[in-house]
Amino acid sequence: MNVTIAPSSVAGTARAPPSKSYTHRAILAAGYADEAIVRDALWSADTRATARAVDLFGGDVDRRENGTLEIEGFDGRPEVPADVIDCANSGTTMRLVTAAAALADGTSVLTGDESLRSRPQGPLLEALGDLSATAYSTRGNGQAPLVVTGPLAGGDVSIPGDVSSQYITALLMAGAVTEDGLEIELETELKSAPYVDITLEVLADFGVEARTTDAGFAVDGGQSYAPAGGEYAVPGDFSSISYPLAAGAIAGEGGVRIEGAQPSAQGDSAIVDIVERMGADVDWDREAGTIDVSRAFLSGIEVDVEDTPDLLPTIATLGAVADGDTHITNAEHVRYKETDRVSAMAEELGKMGVETTEERDSLTVHGGSSELEGATVRGRADHRIIMALALAGLVADGETTIEGADHVDVSFPGFFGLLEELGADLERRE
């Protein structure tokens, strides 16, 4: 699907979609349990991949009409899958499920689409190997397809922290049901640390105790997953909130209200402060979970995305509209997402007349010396690139066409419908 967006102002109320990060963890945690209900779950291409994996491990994920997931788990002991586990485009699914597969007393095979088969999995495979499992890449390059044979033993393991925090999440979730638990030593500084905080929060809500240590993280073995009252509710997603929030900041002449923005462990809630620092009129009522934002003159700032990599595309678009330079730092790990998001935003915004300076670990957007112009841009099969470019289309001079825009289904299936409800002038074409 291609989407063409004409310059538009936006106003009205937007509801935050459920968090993708929390939903992934909740579905798998419910799989590790005997049974559980997950309410307010995001049902997207990525989270469906995690649900399919739970089914293949011997569980059953049943989605009700109200969006509630009723999950029969595999009670900490996954069966050997009867088929290849297809993780589609979901890196979170692949990493979390790879560790779960190592608990099975047999062999599992995991793969995904072309993009996912280019993403690094090597450090996690090595860690599983150090814990008595057999885990390798069929091509010997640390990338999917992956072959994993259990069972996994507990013990001590070391792993780099600067490639993906999802490795630590995967090990903690699996380690809780091993006999001896896990002690995880970080070999390098942890990037995207708030995502591990999310994991610790979800584990606690499912009755599993994990903790930080001087060297890294630890989880005791022999634990059982069981949420209080048998239910868990997924909070709103601040990665997704960043898009209507930014839309309000650059095109919200009538003001935009965002609902479902209760505080949580999500590092991406930093987007509220970032937009405010750039000069937008923002009011976050944390108790009510509402954010009000309206258009204002924006100025470039410096933003460190070490802990918030998913915000880079949104910040880059804000920088294209702002006066002066927006310098996005500590961004090298953002290159290992669905696509190299640093280069992708530099190149696609460049088609729209935006000047950027790209370095290995940073992206500088020269908004003061750029004029946003409508153009045809590529979504690059990356939901966050697509949504960020759609924001740019709201304020560009002329129409902007985004090719391959259907990939928003990965995390925000109703994104373009929401933009239309807020007043955006857009047209979809298959």
Automatic annotation (TrEMBL):
The active site is at D310 (proton acceptor). GO terms for biological process: amino acid biosynthetic process; aromatic amino acid family biosynthetic process; chorismate biosynthetic process. Its EC number is 2.5.1.19. GO terms for molecular function: 3-phosphoshikimate 1-carboxyvinyltransferase activity. PROSITE patterns: EPSP_SYNTHASE_1 (PS00104), EPSP_SYNTHASE_2 (PS00885). It catalyses: 3-phosphoshikimate + phosphoenolpyruvate = 5-O-(1-carboxyvinyl)-3-phosphoshikimate + phosphate. Keywords: Amino-acid biosynthesis, Aromatic amino acid biosynthesis, Cytoplasm, Transferase. It is found in: Cytoplasm. GO terms for cellular component: cytoplasm. Its main location: cytoplasm. Phosphoenolpyruvate binds at K20, G91, R119, Q166, R341, R384. Residues 7-417 form the Enolpyruvate transferase domain. Catalyzes the transfer of the enolpyruvyl moiety of phosphoenolpyruvate (PEP) to the 5-hydroxyl of shikimate-3-phosphate (S3P) to produce enolpyruvyl shikimate-3-phosphate and inorganic phosphate. NCBIfam families: aroA. HAMAP family: EPSP_synth. Belongs to the EPSP synthase family. This is 3-phosphoshikimate 1-carboxyvinyltransferase. The gene is aroA.
